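To: structure subgroup
Subject: Chain for Friday's discussion

All,

I'm putting the inputs and outputs inline so they're searchable in the archive.
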Amino acid sequence: MSHVTRRQALGLFGALGMGAAVASCSGPGGAPAGPATGVAAPATGEITGEVSFAHWRGEDKEVFDELIKKFVAANPDVTATQNISTSNDYNAQGLQKLRGAAIGDAFASFRGSQFSNFTEAGLYTDLTGSTAASQYGTELLAAGKSGDLQLGLPYQVVFPMPLINLDIFDRAGADTAPKDWDGFLGTCEALMSAGVTPISWPGGDVGNGGQLFNCMIVNVAPAEDMCAQIEQGTLKCTDDWFIGMLEQYQQLIPFIQPNSTGTAVEPAQNLFTQGEAAMLATGSYHLAAVRGLGAEFPMELIFPNTSTSGTPKFEGVYNATFILGVNSGSDNQPAAMEWVNFLSDPENAGYYANETAQHVAVADVEYTNEDLQKLSPWLTRNTALAPRFQFNNLDVRNAVEASATAVIAGTSPEQAAAEAQQIVDERV
C-alpha cells in the first residue's frame, strides 16, 4: 500500500492553494476580534498526576483510549481520562464546563465563535514556540492564533462537503465534479432518475446540517469574509446575493429526503450507508462513522458549486478545527502540556488520523488509510476556509443558517432572509 504524507500533499501549495486561504484567515474568522494579552505559557514541572482531556468527539473515544495507554506507558506517574460531551452541548456549554478546570486540563475547541469566546475568557495558555507547535504545518496554525500568540493547535483538517457513494454515481452516470450550479442540479437529476435519493441531509442537527452552508455561500458572496460582515452589519441576509443563495437551497428540495429538517445525523448516515441516498451532506469527518455502520463502497467528496457564471473562485471548502489547548486554570499544566506534545508527535497524530479517517494538521504524517489517501488531493486544491466559523456570535450564526433550514421546510427565501436579519439586527 502506498503512503502519502501531509508534507508531500501540502508541498504543492502556491498562491492559489489552501495555504493562501489559511494565511488570509488571520482576519475575520481566523482569530478573535481582539488579540489576547498577558497570557502565560503552561507551567513546567514533573509529569505526574491526573490529566482530564475534554472534547466532543465521542466517535474517537476508542482511538484516544489507545493513545492514552501509550501516553501513560511513557509517563507512568500520570493518569489520563476523557471527558466527552456531544458537539451541541460542547458548543453551548463548553466554557462553563472548562472554566476553573474541574474538567479539561487539556481540551479541544471549535474554530470560530468558541475559540474566540475561550480566548476572551482567558481560558488558554500560550503555546507559542512550544515543542508541540513546531510539529504543525505553519500554514494551518492560524485558526489557533490570537494576534501573535499561538493559543491553540488546530489538530484536524476536515472537508465539510458532501460524501458521495461512487458506485451509485457510476451506475447513474452522474458527474462527480460539476463545474457550476446547473451541473450540480444535473447530477442530482441523474441520481434521482436512477431511483435513489440524491442527498441525505441532517437538517434536524444544527451542527451537521449547517455544514452545507459553507459550500452554498462561498462562491456567491461578494466578499471572502461574508459571514463576518453579516455579523458586523455591512452585509445583510436581505441582500440580493443572499436571497439568491436561499433560492438555490429551494431548488434542492426535490432532491433531499422527506422530513429532512427533522432528520438527526444518525438516520442521515444510515440512509447513505444503506445505499438509499447517494450523498451525505455533512463532511469528510463522517468517513469513519459511515465505515463503522458497514459501508463498503468507494467514497469521494463533491462540491455543490453554486457559481452560475464564469470561473468559480473556489473548488471546495475545508476547516482547521479541534483546536488543542492547555487550560489556564489547570493545576496540572505540565502533564496537560505533555499530553498535547504527545498528540502532536507525527507518529501519534498518524495513528489518530488513520484510525479516525481524518486528516491532521501535524506535518510529516503518513496516511495509510485508503479513504484518506483517496481524499488527499483535496489538500492541494483551491479550497476556502469554511466561512460559517467566521461568526463570533453563535446566536447570529444559528439565525443565518436557520434561514436555509426554513427554506427547505417551505418558507419563501424572502421571508426566511427577513426573519434571519431581524435576529441579526437584535444581536449586533
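Points worth raising on Friday:
Residues 4-158+319-386 form a domain with the D-Maltodextrin-Binding Protein; domain 2 fold (CATH 3.40.190.10).
Residues 60 and 295 are 18 Å apart (CA to CA).

D.
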